[in-house]
């Protein structure tokens, strides 16, 4: 989408670095409410929940071939962190727009 001119690129990147990084990004962004960082926090929340849902389905069904779907979440994670690194608010393919809509309360 459009290039953000922000000094919070690093905090957006931190949001993609594990659950702890995501929590740190939320805490730091809680006061500033930077829309760029909030965008990436919502993207990562969606990616984490998607990965959790895939893991749950694999465990409940016992169909190990579904593990290939984790590769998809890895690709989404890479695309998200690249967007944060570039300073853009590009939603991840297929589900990124829904993540923004579903988690719009996180700002």
TrEMBL record:
It comes from the Bacteria. Keywords: Membrane, Transmembrane, Transmembrane helix. The chain crosses the membrane at residues 12-29, 41-58, 64-85. It is found in: Membrane. This is Import component protein. It is a multi-pass membrane protein. The keyword Transmembrane helix applies. It comes from Patiriisocius marinus.
